[in-house]
Amino acid sequence: MRINPHSKPLGSLCRLSFSVFFAAILANPALADECAQIKEALGYAANSFEAIKGAELPLERWAIALKVDNYTTCYLERVDQVVLSCETKRFANRNQAQSIFNARSNAAKACLGPDWQLASLGQDRFGISNLGSRQVVMMTIFSDGVASNFFVKTWMYQMPARGSAAPEEAPTVSAAIPREVCPDLKRVISTAPQKFEPILGRKRSGDWTASVQLTGWFSCDVSELREGDPKTRYYTCELSPFVGQEDVAKGLDAVGSVVKSCLGNTWTPVRSSTRDNRPQLQFEAGQQDPIVELRVRYSTARKRWGLHLDVNLPE
Q: How many CB atoms lie within 10 A of CB 90?
C-alpha cells in the first residue's frame, strides 16, 4: 500500500548518520562505483532520460546502456512519466530480498547525502527526494506473480515542476500514476469468484500477501473484514504518498481514468464518499460481479495521504 518522498528536513542526528554512511562509501570501492552510477543516472532525469534512451521494448519500455552495480537490469519505462527502473536478481525467499533491499536503500541514502529528504515507508518500501532538483529515488520489494520469487526494484526520475503539464496531460501529483496495471488487475478480478484463493500468498497478521502485485502499487494484500470468513475477503493495494488533499484528489481522477480504460464500457463508474467523507470511485458491472473501488485515505499515524485500490466481492 504506498511512495514518493516529502518528509520534514532531517535533523542534525540524521546528518551525522549520513556522514557515517558516506564514510563507509569512501572505504568501499564497490559502493563508490554504485554511487557514481546512481548520480550519473539522475543527471539524465531532467530531460526524461532522452540522452540514454535506446531501442523500444514492449510495454512502453526502452533499453539503455547505462548499468548500476548490484542490479541485473536497468531500463526506461513510462509510469505517468518516463522513469529509469533497475531490478535485482530474483530470490527464492523474501528474507534474501529484504537483505538486498536494506543494503541498496542504505547505499542510496549514503550516496545522496543530507540534502535529500527521507520517506521510509515501511520495512520493504523506501523513498528519498531532493526538493531543490525535484529528483526522486524510490525502492520496494516485488514478488514475481508467476514464479513467486522476490526482487528489489528501484525507480529514478524527476518530478514535474509545480503547475507544469505532466506527460500525456496527466494531473501533476506527488506519486507517479501507474499505467501498466490492466492485465494484472483483470487477473485479480477473475479470481474473485474463488474468493481470491489462486492468488493467496504468505499469510501474516491475518492478511495474505497477494501473489499478484499491481505494477507501481504497493503492499497488495488480500484481507478479510471478519477474520476467518472468506465471504468478507477483498484485494487491496496502496499508492502514496501524496502531498495533500488536492493532490490525492487529482490522483484519484488520474487512476480512475486508467481503470476505466482497462475495464471498458461494461463497467459503470460511480462517485461517492466514504464514511469519513473522503472521495471514492467505484466501478460496477453486474450484480454477481466484483466491485473495483478507488478510495482516498489519510493515515494519521504516518501523516500522509494515499489512494487505495480495492477489488471487493459482490454483496
A: 16
Residue 266 lies in a domain: yes
Mean pLDDT, range 205-222, rounded to an integer: 85
- Rounded CA-CA distance 10/131 in Å is 13
Q: What is the pLDDT of residue 198?
A: 94
Q: Kindly tell me if the per-residue pLDDT of 3 is higher than 70.
A: no
Percent of the chain with pLDDT over 90: 31
Peptide bond into 241 cis (omega under 30): yes
Position 42 pLDDT exceeds 70: yes
**Cβ-contact 38, 32 below 8 angstroms:** no
Same domain, 143 and 31: yes
The helix/strand count (H/E) of the chain reads as 5, 16
Q: Pick from 224, 16, 210, 202: which is nearest to 94 by CA?
A: 202
86 shares a domain with 29? yes
Domain housing 259: 182-312
Q: How many C-alpha atoms does 229 have within 13 Å on its Cβ side?
A: 7
In a domain, 1, yes or no: no
**218, containing H or E segment:** strand 218-224
- Compute φ and ψ for 128, nearest 5 degrees: -150, 135
Residues 187 and 154 in one domain: no
Residue 171 forms part of a structural domain: no
Beta strands in 80-217 (DSSP E): 81-87, 117-120, 125-130, 135-143, 150-158, 200-204, 207-210
pLDDT band of 149, cuts 50, 70, 90: confident
Domain annotation covers residue 177 = no
Mean pLDDT throughout 179-193?
92
Look-up of cell digits 460511480: 270
What's the pLDDT tens digit per position in 58-95?
878 899 988 898 899 999 988 767 899 999 999 888 88
Helix axes 12-27, 29-43, angle to 10 degrees: 110
Do 151 and 187 fall into the same domain? no
- Say what the pLDDT of residue 161 is: 60
